[in-house]
């Protein structure tokens, strides 16, 4: 099973890029973030014609998450992260695909930091960590994936000294990510590529992609039951270089059958 995550930065504005990538790579499951579309404006028909069924949670102007599945039955488990009934942001969606739980997430950016947005980021991170522990305690195979807006280490950012005050790289964010992983999750990319420079995001400005001045903020965290099935992982870096594309590149893992 090939599972991918992709922050599309506007599912309608970058639809042709998404459809081209789906056609060329044919992942079995895709988690999308930052749809930037209300529920009724999700391009369901175009996704269906590409061979995928979809479950999505849209939101006008920003946020929004979805899961696409090709030829695999999919059941929605939840579309909100537990812990704050007043949180109306569309940032989490969880599905069951043949007994595999997949949580697709778009963690808050948190800038400017410090401030209310950073406080919300850390609060959301705490809720995610609590829910992740609940999932681990169930003893079932789980994949948590998406745009975490978290740079785990200096290895994951171009010129880390320039990011020390950014919400993605502040000590509190890195500590929150480590605390989550230390529950018993495996960072799939770092398991297979422990020392390589790997980025998943390049800003639109200052020729960041051309200079490879990037960040690794899109992650796959695997429960122990999934970790032992991990065969391969990678970043479709070239997609970031396509015309009218997202500032993120798709990230993927390949799992062995049960």
> First CA to last CA: what distance?
10 Å
> What's the β-strand tally?
14
The strands making up the biggest β-sheet line up spatially as 3-4-2-1-14-13
Shape: globular
Described by strand count, sense and barrel closure, the largest sheet is: 6 strands, mixed
CATH topology: Deoxyribonuclease I, Chain A
Going by CATH, the architecture would be 4-Layer Sandwich
Q: Helix-strand pattern, N to C?
A: EHEHEEEEEHEHEHEHEEHEE
Mean pLDDT: 98
Q: How many domains, as an integer?
A: 1
CATH class call = Alpha Beta
Count of runs of 4 or more consecutive helical residues: 7
Task: Tell me the fraction of residues in β-strands, as a range.
Answer: 25-35%
Supply the CATH superfamily name: Endonuclease/exonuclease/phosphatase
Rg measurement, Å: 17 Å
Task: Report the uncertain regions.
Answer: none
Q: Which secondary structure elements does this structure contain, and how are they paired or packed?
A:
Elements: E1 2-7, H1 15-25, E2 29-33, H2 44-49, E3 53-57, E4 65-69, E5 75-78, E6 92-97, E7 100-106, H3 116-137, E8 142-147, H4 171-181, E9 186-187, H5 188-192, E10 201-202, H6 208-211, E11 214-215, E12 218-222, H7 224-227, E13 230-235, E14 251-255
Parallel strand pairs: 1-2, 7-8
Antiparallel strand pairs: 1-14, 2-4, 3-4, 5-6, 6-7, 8-12, 9-12, 10-11, 13-14
Helix pairs in contact: 3-4
Commentary on this structure:
Its cofactor is Mg(2+); Mn(2+). It is a single chain. This protein is α+β, with helices and mostly antiparallel strands and 258 residues long. It has a single domain, classed as Deoxyribonuclease I, Chain A (4-Layer Sandwich). It has helices spanning 15-25, 44-49, 116-137, 171-181, 188-192, 208-211, 224-227; strands at residues 2-7, 29-33, 53-57, 65-69, 75-78, 92-97, 100-106, 142-147, 186-187, 201-202, 214-215, 218-222, 230-235, 251-255. Strand 3 (53-57) and strand 4 (65-69) form a beta hairpin. The radius of gyration is 17 Å and the shape is globular. The mean pLDDT is 98.
């Amino acid at each position: 099973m090939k599972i991918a995550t992709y922050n599309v930065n506007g599912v309608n504005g970058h639809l042709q890029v998404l459809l081209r990538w789906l056609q060329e790579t044919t992942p079995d499951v895709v988690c999308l973030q930052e749809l930037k579309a209300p529920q009724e404006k999700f391009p369901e028909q175009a996704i269906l014609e590409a061979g995928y069924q979809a479950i999505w949670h849209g939101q006008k102007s920003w946020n929004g998450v979805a899961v696409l599945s090709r030829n695999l039955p999919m059941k929605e488990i939840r579309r909100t992260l537990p812990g704050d009934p007043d949180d109306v942001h569309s940032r989490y969606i969880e599905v069951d695909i043949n007994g595999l739980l997949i949580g697709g997430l778009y963690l808050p950016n948190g800038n400017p930091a410090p401030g209310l947005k950073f406080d919300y980021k850390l609060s959301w991170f705490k809720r995610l960590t609590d829910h992740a522990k609940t999932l681990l305690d169930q003893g079932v195979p789980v994949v948590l994936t998406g745009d975490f807006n978290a740079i785990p280490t200096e290895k994951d950012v171009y010129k880390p000294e320039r990011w020390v005050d950014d919400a993605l790289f502040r000590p509190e964010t890195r500590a929150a990510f480590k605390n989550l992983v230390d529950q018993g999750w495996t960072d799939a990319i770092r398991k297979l590529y422990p020392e390589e420079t790997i980025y998943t995001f390049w800003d639109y400005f200052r020729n960041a992609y051309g200079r490879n001045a990037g960040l690794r903020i899109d992650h796959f965290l695997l429960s122990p039951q999934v970790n032992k099935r991990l065969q391969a992982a990678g970043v479709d870096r070239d997609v970031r270089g396509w015309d009218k594309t997202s500032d993120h590149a798709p990230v993927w893992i390949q799992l062995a059958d049960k």
